[in-house]
Amino acid sequence: VQLQASGGGLVQAGGSLRLSCAASGWTFGTLVMGWFRHAPGKAREFVTAIRWRDGQTDYPDGVKGRFTISRDNGKNTVYLQMNSLKAEDTAVYYCVADRNAFYGMAFWGKGTQVTVSS
Hints:
Helices cover 0% and strands 52% of the residues. By secondary structure, it is mostly beta strands. The strands form 2 sheets. Strands 2, 4, 5, 6, 9, 10 and 11 form a 7-stranded mixed sheet that branches. A 4-stranded antiparallel sheet has the order 1-3-8-7, with no helix packed on it. It is globular, with a radius of gyration of 13 Å. The relative contact order is 0.32.
């Protein structure tokens, strides 16, 4: 399984960014994809995930209402729309996937840097 993420960059506080992640080599019948992030000096943090079968999503309070995950079934691709970005959103964002789990993801892609300047 390969996860290819793109879309990171530098943005001013209050701005927006969209991350994309395409999954290839997936042979399982079920799929959950999402994002974690890791900022320097902080623990790795769950950002969001979506279940392919029914579109169920989850967000922690810190991003709820600002971040939105969506999927393109035909392309096995997820998108993370990040609005109203804050300096504390600065981190390396990792695309993740699993057969069923939302939080203990088995497959990790290379990270993409998101930097929010204040």
